[in-house]
Amino acid sequence: MKKINKTDIVKKYIFKEIKDGNIKKGNRLPSCRKIASELSINKITVNKAYNELEREHKLFSIPRGGFYLVDYEEDLKIIQKEVDFNTVKPDDKLIPYKEFTHVINKAVDQYKNTLFGYGTTAGLSPFRDTLKSMFEKDGIYTTSKNIVVTHGAQQAITLVLQAIFQNNKGNLLVEVPTYNLALEFAKFLKIETIGIERKFNGYDFNELERIFKNQNVTAFYIIPRHHNPTGYTLSENSKRKICELCNKYNVLIIEDDYLADLGNENRSMPIHYYDINKSSIYIRSFSKTFMPGIRIGAAVFPESIIKSVLNFKYLSDLSTSQLTQAALDIFIKSGMYEKHIKKVKKSYEIKLAKAKEIFKTLSPEELVWHVPKHGIFMWLELPEYVHAMELEKKLYNHGILIKTAEEFFLKEYNTKHTNCLRLCISGVSEKNISSIADVILAIRSFKY
């Protein structure tokens, strides 16, 4: 009589639990100890069975976090609820509605005589003082009068480009790829734009210096940390080198540090910290980590352009809402903002760690992928046999929304460079992050 393979007993038991609905895709499997106890089998045998299932792409594991179910069947499932890897919006569970309602009411009581008139163009004075103290903790040293409160980072970018290029025919240098709306703003303002490739390890600095020497560059728009769309972060040495070259060739740095609050693995400083001349522009946002709807951003401007920036802002909107500024000011001073950010960071780190293990387990060799430890973006360079637009349509039919990367590139870059995906995890719940497995399975399906 043939001896029964005990690892097969474990696998059969797991498959039955899946079929009965006790284990669902994305769920953590019972511990080896628990299964060993239920089946009267050594837990080493259970662990062996789990490892075999991982090699068969049925499970993925997270170090010290257990095993999770990828999928029991090979075909993609129709997801009942849409999973959106496209929208850059926090998960509703991470938005502090109740707490912010409280501080809005408190702001009305505290500033009732001044909140509902026209405010100053630069922003509410107490809030700018709070931002000054907040920025100093992150290595951004400035004065309150050099800080301008804006309608999100987008308005800050627009104001900067208007102020710099109103009477200047020089070129704007951008990273390739980069934030799509910055490209749209430059196009709308008829600014000549040139690019330098942003790689995992930064730039080719010989190429960067060649561009500065020969291309009449006036300003360099950079997203040094948590890059949109790739999720890359520049090294401290790269940031210093950028400052040296920009100062040498009189190029103005526009630093978009929109996700500064999410931190990094090691202590990471903004480029502004290394700019000893303090001639760079620093932009910050509260939309992506806090509440998108309040549309609050802030920027630090050098003396050379702040007057022009304020003139353009006055012409476009007079001032940013004083009520939301006052409420956010109280929220920060009370310590609630710091507590909120810790919660957001932890959630994002859990999702990214889980995503990374799925990629390590399931990705075909031809897929180039980057999942950072911090931030909200993951970057995929697709194999030649996969077309990004076709993949987008295929996943859409299964309830998964993704973002192809074409709009993040300058037009002169061909399809070989643009056959990429940006996946955003901010609006995806921890439970639904396992849908990344479906994205990878869809990619693999193009090969067969």
Automatic annotation (TrEMBL):
It comes from the Bacteria. GO terms for molecular function: DNA binding; DNA-binding transcription factor activity; pyridoxal phosphate binding; transaminase activity. Keywords: Aminotransferase, DNA-binding, Pyridoxal phosphate, Transcription, Transcription regulation, Transferase. SUPFAM superfamilies: PLP-dependent transferases (SSF53383), Winged helix' DNA-binding domain (SSF46785). PROSITE patterns: HTH_GNTR (PS50949). The keyword Transferase applies. This is Transcriptional regulator, GntR family with aminotransferase domain. It comes from Clostridium carboxidivorans P7. The lineage of its organism: Bacteria, Bacillati, Bacillota, Clostridia, Eubacteriales.
